[in-house]
Task: inverse folding
């Protein structure tokens, strides 16, 4: 999963900014990343791959997605919005002692662009990295959050596939040097680079090819970070989380009808959710 796609899922619930890309027209994905899952016991559930952005081009949901959401008992997303905003902060952060004068100037400038101001000085370095890697501020209404709100309006039970501790602890576990390495790599990126990569990711999503999305995520972030750090992050952000989420989806979907919304990069691959659920005995059918 790219820094861009992961960051939006973490920050969109509390950052205020521009809600839509300027000048884009709404268009639903050509092929929505929506699968019907039939459990060994016969229960029917759905798995939907999302891209964690508020872009109008992806937030015009295909009718099949909304129909599926209306048919289930439970809505599951990666993690529920955290009640404690402290998960984003490190009050003891001393960026003045960790960054150069030039880097501090860049951090302050980007903090203004992303409407977080002085709060940036208390945020964890990895979180600043993922926020600053966005080409522009993101509003709160990402795909995941919109589906979460619709599910609550429908009176559905809502659950997280991960606890807040599990979700945020992944990158918290990186050393200070590793987190600062992520931040410094992003500070070297140009606005043009960020916009190019973001557009590439959104267009791949609209084409509805999960393998292509995973490949772009890997290439974008792999080119940004040192190979050893990216290899470590990739396992933490994708493989380890898939191994955690797949059995939790299985346990819920054997008992109730479930709509699962997860980042599209979690779908493909040998340890992806599609493969793991198929191995668990589910019959998968992609819906149009």
Result:
């Amino acid at each position: 999963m790219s820094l861009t796609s992961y960051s939006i899922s973490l920050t969109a619930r509390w950052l205020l900014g521009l809600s839509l890309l300027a000048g884009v027209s709404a268009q639903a994905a050509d092929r929505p990343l929506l699968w019907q899952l039939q459990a060994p016991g016969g229960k029917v559930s759905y798995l939907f791959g999302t891209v964690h952005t508020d872009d109008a081009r992806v937030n015009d949901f295909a009718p099949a997605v909304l129909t599926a959401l209306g048919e289930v008992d439970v809505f599951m997303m990666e993690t529920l919005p955290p009640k404690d905003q402290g998960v984003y902060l490190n009050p003891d952060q001393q960026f003045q002692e960790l960054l150069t004068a030039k880097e501090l100037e860049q951090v302050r400038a980007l903090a203004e662009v992303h409407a977080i101001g002085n709060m940036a000085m208390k945020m964890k370095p990895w979180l600043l990295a993922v926020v600053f890697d966005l080409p522009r501020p993101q509003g709160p209404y990402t795909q995941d959050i919109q589906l979460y709100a619709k599910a609550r309006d429908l009176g559905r039970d809502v659950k997280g596939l991960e606890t807040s501790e599990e979700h945020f602890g992944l990158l918290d576990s990186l050393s200070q040097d590793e987190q600062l390495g992520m931040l410094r790599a992003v500070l070297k990126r140009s606005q043009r680079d960020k916009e190019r990569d973001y557009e590439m990711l959104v267009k791949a999503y609209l084409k509805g090819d999960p393998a292509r999305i995973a490949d772009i995520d890997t290439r974008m972030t792999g080119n940004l970070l040192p190979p050893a750090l990216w290899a470590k992050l990739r396992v933490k952000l994708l493989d380890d989380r898939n191994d955690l989420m797949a059995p939790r989806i299985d346990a819920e979907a054997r008992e109730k009808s479930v709509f699962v919304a997860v980042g599209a990069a979690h779908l493909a691959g040998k340890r992806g959710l599609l493969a793991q659920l198929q191995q668990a005995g589910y019959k998968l059918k992609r819906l149009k």
